[in-house]
Design goal:
The complex is a heterodimer of chains A (about 180) and B (about 270). Chain A is an alpha+beta fold and about 180 residues long. Chain A is about 15% helix and about 35% strand. Chain A is built from two helices and 13 strands. In chain A, a hairpin with a 2-residue loop joins β9 and β10. The mean pLDDT of chain A is about 95. With about 270 residues, chain B is α+β, with helices and mostly antiparallel strands. In chain B, about 20% of the residues lie in helices and about 35% in strands. Chain B is built from six helices and 17 strands. In chain B, strands 8, 9, 10, 11, 12, 13, 14 and 15 form an eight-stranded antiparallel beta sheet that branches. In chain B, strands 2-3-4-5 form a four-stranded antiparallel beta sheet, covered by helices on one side. Classes of the chains: A alpha+beta (about 180), B alpha+beta (about 270). Chains A and B meet through loops of A and α4 of B.
C-alpha cells in the first residue's frame, strides 16, 4: 500500500500542531508527551470541526469547540459536558505513521516508508497533478505527496538551496503549461 | 443542488440586510440560494430583482426580506420587537463560510459555551446543562424550551428558549428573572448565499436597562459572534450532516431534535443527507 511523506519531523514540535494533506484528506499532526508523532484525519468525530483548531496539551489533544480530549491513541477520554459520565467508544481517524530519515510518513494501511537519498529539505508545492510532477522529478531523490485532487507537495532531499532552485524551475514550467 | 428543488427552502422569506446598512453601503448586488439579486435603492424603499424578475420585498424586524419562491404568509414575526421599552439593533451582517444551517445548530448548542466563549457565556467550573423540552407548535415551528446553563456575566444560571420557525433562522428568548414572562431576544437569521456560504444577520431586542451602553452591547455581541464564526468556518463538512456522519452524545439533544425537524420537513439544501 502507498505511504506518503506528510511533514518534516523537525517541524512537529512539542505542544504544537501541524496541518498537512494526504490526497483529499486533511491531516492534523502532533507530537504527544511520549515523543511519538501522530497523524490523524483533521476532523473531530463530534461536529467535524478541524482538530488542528484545538490545542496540543501533551497527553492529549483538546477540541476547540466542546473541549473533547483525545489521547495519543485517538480515543476520546473526556467529554467535559458529561461531567464524569462514561464516554462511549469514540475515536479520531488515526493513520499508520512512521518517522524515517527526518520525514514523517503516513498511510491508510501499514506505513512502509521509502528510502531517502539525503537530508530532508523544505517541501515545494506545485499546482499540478502528481502524475505530471512524477514525470519531471527524480523520485529516488524527491518524495511526492498528492495535495488535494490536482496538486502535489514535493518533499526533496539534498542541498536545500540547490533543490529549491531546481524545483522552482519545474514548478514554473508545470504551472505555466 | 438547485435550491428550486427544495420547496421547504425555496418558498421562504430571507433577510437581505438592514435598510440602513444597504443604504450606507449603497449595495446594489447580493446573492440568495445561488441566485444573483439586484438591489435598487429608492428614496423611501428598496426593491430587489433576480434577472428581470421583480421579487417581493417587505420590511420587518429591522431587515429587508425577500423570497425567490411563493411563501405561505409573511416573514416570521416577533411582536415584542416593537415594544417601546426595548433597545433594538442589528448586531452585524457578516458572511460566514459554511451552510447557514450550521449557525442554527451552533446557537442551540449550550455545551460549547465554556470552551468557545470562556468567562462570557460559560466556564469550565460550571458544566451543568439542564436540557429543556422540545415541541413543534401548530405553525410547524420547533421550540426548545427552558434550557439552563451557567452564565458568568450574571454569575447565575440562565434560562434560554429557542424558536426555530424557518430552517435557516433561530430566535433566542433569554428568560428575565426579574420580570417573568418577559424575555430579551436575539435573532439569528441566515441569508444563504449558496449551500456553503451565508450571511449571518444578528438581531438584538432587549428590554432597556440603566447599565446598557448601546455601543458596548454591540461590541460584546460581535465578540461572541466572532468566536462562533471562527469555529463555523472550521467545519470539515461545510454542510450540516443529517445522516450519521457526525457522532452525537446525550447532551446534543437539541441539535439532534433540530436535525430531526429538518429531516421531517424534507430540508436538503445546505444539508448532507
Amino acid at each position: 500500500m502507498t505511504s506518503y511523506v506528510v511533514a518534516l519531523e523537525k517541524d512537529v514540535r512539542p505542544n504544537s500542531i501541524v496541518r498537512s494533506m494526504m490526497g483529499d484528506k486533511p491531516l492534523v499532526i502532533w507530537r504527544g508527551a511520549s515523543g511519538a508523532i501522530h497523524v490523524w484525519l483533521d476532523r473531530c468525530p463530534h461536529r467535524s470541526v478541524r482538530l488542528s483548531a484545538g490545542r496540543n496539551m501533551g497527553d492529549y489533544l483538546e477540541g476547540v469547540y466542546h473541549g473533547w480530549r483525545f489521547d495519543e491513541s485517538g480515543l476520546v477520554t473526556l467529554v467535559p459536558a458529561l461531567q464524569g459520565r462514561t464516554v462511549e467508544d469514540i475515536r479520531a481517524t488515526v493513520y499508520s505513521t512512521t518517522v524515517a530519515d527526518g520525514f514523517v510518513w503516513a498511510s491508510h494501511d501499514a506505513c512502509t516508508p521509502a528510502k531517502s537519498a539525503g537530508e530532508p529539505c523544505y517541501p515545494v508545492h506545485i499546482a499540478a497533478p502528481i502524475e505530471q510532477v512524477r514525470q519531471r522529478v527524480d523520485t529516488s531523490v524527491d518524495h511526492l505527496t498528492p495535495w488535494g485532487k490536482d496538486e502535489t507537495m514535493v518533499y526533496p532531499t539534498g542541498n536545500p538551496e540547490q533543490r529549491r532552485a531546481e524545483l522552482s524551475a519545474i514548478r514554473l514550467r508545470l504551472e505555466e503549461s | 443542488m438547485n435550491a428550486h428543488e427544495d420547496a421547504e427552502v425555496w418558498n421562504r422569506w430571507y433577510p437581505l440586510g438592514s435598510p440602513t446598512d444597504i443604504r450606507r453601503r449603497n449595495a446594489t448586488k447580493t446573492r440568495l440560494l445561488g441566485h444573483d439579486i439586484d438591489l435598487e435603492i429608492h428614496k423611501t424603499w428598496i426593491s430587489a430583482s433576480t434577472g428581470s424578475r421583480p421579487l417581493p420585498i417587505t420590511e420587518r424586524l429591522g431587515y429587508i426580506w425577500t423570497s425567490l419562491g411563493e411563501p405561505d404568509g409573511p416573514p416570521q414575526q416577533l411582536l415584542e420587537y416593537y415594544e417601546v421599552d426595548r433597545l433594538v439593533m442589528n448586531i452585524w451582517s457578516t458572511p460566514i463560510k459554511c451552510s447557514g444551517l450550521r449557525i442554527v445548530d451552533n446557537v442551540i448548542d449550550n455545551a460549547h459555551f465554556p470552551f468557545l466563549h470562556p468567562h462570557i457565556l460559560g466556564d469550565e467550573d460550571h458544566l451543568d446543562l439542564v436540557p429543556g423540552e422540545a415541541s413543534v407548535d401548530d405553525e410547524g415551528a420547533l421550540w426548545l424550551k427552558s434550557q439552563k446553563a451557567w452564565l458568568p456575566l450574571t454569575n447565575s444560571v440562565s434560562e434560554y428558549t429557542y424558536r426555530i420557525s424557518d430552517p435557516y433562522s433561530v430566535v433566542l428568548f433569554i428568560h428575565r428573572p426579574t420580570t417573568p414572562g418577559r424575555y430579551d431576544y436575539l435573532g439569528i437569521f441566515a441569508q444563504p448565499l449558496d449551500e456553503e456560504n451565508f450571511i449571518a444577520h444578528k438581531l438584538l431586542a432587549w428590554v432597556k436597562e440603566d447599565w446598557m451602553d448601546e455601543r458596548q452591547l454591540k461590541a460584546d455581541q460581535q465578540c461572541i459572534s466572532a468566536q462562533d464564526k471562527y469555529v463555523l468556518e472550521r467545519h470539515a463538512h461545510k454542510k450540516l450532516p443529517l445522516n450519521d456522519e457526525e457522532t452525537s452524545i446525550e447532551v446534543d439533544s437539541s441539535s439532534l431534535r433540530y436535525r430531526e425537524w429538518l429531516r421531517a420537513n424534507n430540508v436538503n439544501y445546505g444539508a448532507m443527507t
